[in-house]
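A further point concerns the way the authors explain their paired sequence and structure data. An entry of this sort, consisting of the sequence and the corresponding backbone structure tokens, reads as follows:
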Amino acid sequence: MRSPAEAGQKVLMLGDDFWLLLPGSSRPLRITPTQKLLGEASTGDIATLAWSQDYEGQLRGAARCDGDRACWHLSLQARRAGLSYPRIELWLGQAHGEPLHAELYVGSGKLAKTARFVLDRQNAPTRVDEMWLGDQLTAKKQTRIRYLSRQRRSVPEAWLNPMFLARNPSLE
């Protein structure tokens, strides 16, 4: 985590299990995917966006998005119980299959959050650079998540132990 308020925090995700290590703490804290980090973003919102692997999708049909943009509307159902949102309604641009916005529903069927995606290039998008989350249950606040860098890395298996994080706080 890179913001000044989060400096030194580390999150470890193993399957559906999450741990948070705070600077100066001797033990990592077990957290749930729905616990909020800062603003309205939860751990699951940031760490578990592998929707193609975690959800079964069904095409609902063509739609119009963001004014007059041609979109596909998909309904996604969770493949397993440990996910933050059992159901997601997703709208993709027809031209490139890029995510445009989503509605995220909790187990009770209530709309919990809306997500809007900002892409790197409008005409030929290759990645999501920002995600705006809007809380629909309580505060009606917006949280902006910016993806500053992406790097695929291989890490030693020892790093995948929550206590290893506590004993080695300066992993980079």
User: Anything to note?
Assistant: The chain has a mean pLDDT of 81. The first strand starts at residue 10 and ends at 14. Residues 105 and 111 are 4 Å apart (CA to CA). The chain has three helices and twelve strands.
